[in-house]
Amino acid sequence: EVQLVESGGGLVQAGGSLRLSCAASGFRFGSYTIAWFRQAPGKEREGVACISTTDGESYYADSVKGRFIISSDNAKNTAFLQMDGLKPEDTAVYYCAADALDFLARAAQATGRMAHEWDYWGQGTQVTVSS
Fold first, then answer.
1. How many CB atoms lie within 10 A of CB 62?
2. What sign for the dihedral angle of Cα 67, 70, 76, 77?
3. Which residues, other chains included, contact 76 with Cβ-Cβ below 8 Å and sequence gap of 6+?
């Protein structure tokens, strides 16, 4: 059974930091693309960042570039999203996703967006940034 379990969300003041984790099981983690999406109330889901666990290629949305860092620890089947310089507009439910196509980060670099139906999704973790 495939599982993606997010953790690390919470309440933080503007300018603060959080580190989200996505613990994966049930698939070959080392040859996937892992992504983070977010969805704020009343807004569409937004692709935040993604990384190929095969070669480490990554992609970031303009809204988080320079503030967020995505990484993966293949030995622990876990992906991370380090979020620094948080802003109130970062408030959302953050979701981890995974896809067996391991080149999606390069594809996002070429197209400028993470447009794809992902194979697996986690349940999400709430991030709230107060002003």
1. 8
2. positive
3. 23
For residues 2 and 111, the answer to whether their CB atoms sit within 8 Å is no
The answer to whether the beta carbons of residues 123 and 5 sit under 8 Å apart is: yes
Strand pairing report for 58-60 and 33-39: unpaired
Q: What is the pLDDT of residues 102-119, one digit of tens each?
A: 999 999 999 999 977 899
Tens digits of per-residue pLDDT, 58-99?
999 999 999 999 999 999 999 999 999 999 999 999 999 999
Question: Which one, of 96, 128, 98, lies nearest residue 5 by Cα?
Answer: 96
E strand or H helix at 109: helix 104-111
- Tokens, residue 49: 């960042």
Report the C-alpha gap between 50 and 55 in whole angstroms.
12
